[in-house]
Design brief:
By secondary structure, the protein is mostly helical. Helix content is 61%, strand content 6%. It has a three-stranded antiparallel beta sheet with strand order 3-5-4. The protein has a two-stranded antiparallel ribbon with strand order 1-2. Bound molecules: zinc ion. Zinc ion binds next to helix 11.
């Protein structure tokens, strides 16, 4: 789940903290016991990564041999992969990780595979490349009920959520505040979480900020932990809370702005696809009519 700040996201995956950049994400995918990493590891569980007997490409020696090929050949090979395959490969071992996430060629390679897979826009800088790819190209599985879902990925929540779960697990801002036993805490928490909107069956937005239920619970728990530290008189606890709030606000703002850009991209793409289908339909109708006419005339011979 991406209910974390940029540094948390990075820290969860790398075991370190600091400024989040794509170049740091290589080490980030390796370890942590957090829910975020658990989610990423779930999607990283490919036959290649989990094989008891490593395949040729997964063995360190073969990896070194492959990466010893001329760069244009490697680029050509990897450029044929699907983005999710590349993400899995990046998490196979350190050599692939360094090449795919930290080398100068990596940005161009990711762009190439994304274009081939449907020109998905790049993610915001605050979200690591692999995390973004997993969100965009993950299986058709609703993050709420786990059922198969063809619903679009929510570009702000970075999840695919089915229509039913959007109604039951996306909670309205005003309702949350009115029902809360601690409105001040709730108001603070809601400032730190990305929000989305409800959609009608036709896909149009319904006004109002909606929050993903599990993110509310996770962020509330973190804020309460900071409060406990402050009440216990731990040194630096107040500053730590302030830093957390600042990071979360920046992260939330960035991902919401980026989500709006992605939605516009999706709207234009749908329009183009509709126009293409209409053109294809116009071309097909006369051909089908000719075939039907031919068959009917054939019947009377
Ligand atoms: Zn669902």
């Amino acid at each position: 789940m991406l209910s974390t700040t940029p540094s948390e996201l990075e820290a969860n995956q790398s075991g370190s903290s600091g400024t989040v950049t794509r170049t740091n994400e290589g080490a980030s995918e390796a370890a942590s016991g957090s829910n975020e990493s658990a989610r990423f590891r779930k999607y990283a569980s490919t036959p290649l990564a989990d094989a008891k007997h490593p395949t040729a490409i997964a063995s360190p020696l073969s990896c070194i041999r492959l990466l010893a090929f001329p760069m244009d050949i490697i680029y050509e090979i990897f450029g044929q992969l699907y983005p999710l395959d590349l993400a899995n490969l990046a998490q196979t071992n350190r050599a692939f990780r360094a090449f795919l996430l930290e080398s100068p060629q990596s940005d161009g390679l990711w762009k190439t595979v994304k274009v081939v897979a449907g020109e998905t826009p790049d993610g915001p800088l605050c979200v690591p490349q692999v995390a973004w790819v997993r969100a965009m190209y993950c299986e058709y599985e609703c993050a709420g009920c786990g059922q198969y879902s063809r619903d679009e990925v929510d570009f702000v929540l970075l999840r695919r959520i089915c229509f039913e779960c959007r109604w039951t697990r996306l909670l309205h801002h005003d309702w949350l505040i009115s029902k809360s036993e601690h409105p001040i805490l709730s108001a603070l928490v809601l400032q730190l979480i990305p929000y989305t909107s409800m959609r009608t069956l036709s896909g149009s937005d319904i006004p109002g900020k909606r929050y993903w239920e599990p993110e509310i619970a996770a962020t509330t728990a973190k804020v309460l932990k900071y409060w406990e530290d402050i009440e216990a008189g731990k040194p630096g606890a107040t500053e730590a809370l302030d830093q957390y709030k600042e990071e979360r606000v920046q992260y939330t703002r960035a991902i919401i702005e980026h989500g709006a850009t992605c939605k516009e991209w999706l709207r234009i793409r749908k329009k183009e696809e509709q126009a293409l289908r209409a053109t294809q339909y116009k071309r097909c109708v006369p051909m089908v009519a000719r075939v039907v006419k031919f068959r009917i005339s054939d019947c009377f011979w």
